[in-house]
């Protein structure tokens, strides 16, 4: 199978046919096959500018079989790029609303622990339009006022309930009661998003820096550490949702060619174990689950 390298006219033969798995043949003519190692046991596919492969995975040759396996009628083809949404067209927020946005969309919450009129915004990339979710989505996102608590009712600290907003895979609970909890990173990890959780007068849990969740990371140059803005909104150099990468962290993310693809190292407990790619105009990872 042939593929072109960069913008040059040079044609290079991929070596999948020389592997024990044989050549990958279920590929349309405008898709390029690219070996990811010296012996072509790891293969990815690319498309001409303006389109994206229908299969974003890294195909791996294992024991004579390509994984993931293609169905009998499946063909790897090129799909036209989707349309990005304009963040300036999102509804404005009012006082008391907390916005947590990344390049995949936004989620909204209230400082007083109640539910806002709009709880989330996701991009319909087929048309480049925002889909809003919530009880009463409108031009402005508002939070209802918390009802005043009669004196005979229980204290706010008794209403918060058990705090569960932390990643049990990376974070250890040091001490916790109805009003105050402390946390630390598990061995091999560092940079905790918040080391404490406090029960507020409104009956909700509050973390340091207005973050929404407690987790730890493996390296200083993960997406969370390197691309954190002062306003608490994370802008990684890719269009995919980093929260979809479970149990591991991302590091050393670099844009390839015109920025259509960003490749990141996958880190587990401080060690690089694999790579994953973000197809930026589709907001989809080539791989999301890893053994850590």
UniProtKB/TrEMBL annotation:
Swiss-Prot/TrEMBL keywords: Signal
Keyword Signal in annotation: yes
Signal sequence segment: 1-18
Domain of life: Eukaryota
Name of the protein: Oidioi.mRNA.OKI2018_I69.chr1.g1095.t1.cds
